[in-house]
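Notes from the 1:1 (GR / supervisor)

We went over the backlog. Supervisor wanted to see one worked example end to end before approving the batch request, so GR pasted a single chain during the call. The sequence is below; no edits were made to it. Supervisor asked that the structure be written out right there so they could see what the output format looks like.
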Amino acid sequence: MAQNTPDEALVPDMRRKRRNELFAFLVLAFGIWPVVAVGVVGGYGFLVWMFQIIFGPPGPHGG
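Structure output shown during the call:
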């Protein structure tokens, strides 16, 4: 009976690791980072809006 070599024993573990890494990439690329990007842009827009409410719109002052 042939014994499994160390390389053959690692194949299922490597496949599982690759699958986990692919899953993590997909979750980050299409789940978390788009939400973070929308939150950052929305937060910046909110800050600009609040700044303009308090200090007025940009540009020269009317006179």
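Supervisor's comment: The first helix runs from residue 6 to 55.
Batch request approved.
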